[in-house]
Amino acid sequence: MKNEHELAELAQEIDAHLRAIRRALRRPLATAIARGGLTAPQRCIMHILVRSDGLSLKEVSRRAELAHSTVSGIVDRLEKRGMLSRQLDSEDGRLSRIVVTDPVRNFVRDKLPELAMQPLLAALHRARPRERAKILDGLRALRRVLGSE
After folding, report:
1. Could you tell me if 9 and 89 are in contact, meaning their C-beta atoms sit under 8 angstroms apart?
2. Alpha helices in 86-128 (DSSP H)
3. pLDDT of residue 1
């Protein structure tokens, strides 16, 4: 059995490999997001809204943990860029709901999953069948011993 020091070094090496793999897998997504030219607060607002069917400005502010006036300005700028729109609430016509536009929703639904899988698919194409099986076996074993199955 390996001593604690050797296991700690092994854990550090595995962690470094996992972080490098995560970066490689996220690179196409990061590039696509960077091309959108969004600030961090704008990305936060878009992240919240993409996962909803529309929210009030108050609810977006609460979820983003940002001031109402800050979120209002962000929404205005994103609306001018055609990424968001305001729609009257069907239950209370006095309220508006902020929703992502169809092109944004389509991009998130259709293009992002493809971008997320692109590096992994390319790597699997380069791998020999035996390497693919080893990769899968190793990942299954790691999940099992981590107890995350």
Report:
1. no
2. 102-106, 112-126
3. 53
Q: Per DSSP, what are the bridge partners of residue 135? A: none
- Between CA 68 and CA 72, with CA 71 as vertex, the angle to 5 degrees is 80
Residue ranges covered by each domain of the chain: 1-35+101-149, 38-99
**Spatial contact of 6 and 26, defined as CB atoms under 8 Å apart:** no
Q: Could you tell me which CATH class the domain 38-99 is placed in?
A: mainly alpha
Given a contact cutoff of 8 angstroms between Cβ atoms, the answer to whether 80 and 74 are in contact is no
Phi, psi of 95 (to 5 degrees): -105, 150
Q: Which residues of the chain have pLDDT under 70?
A: 1-2, 149
List C-alpha distances in Å: 10 to 13, 21, 135, 142, 143. Answer: 5, 16, 18, 13, 16
* pLDDT value of position 112: 82
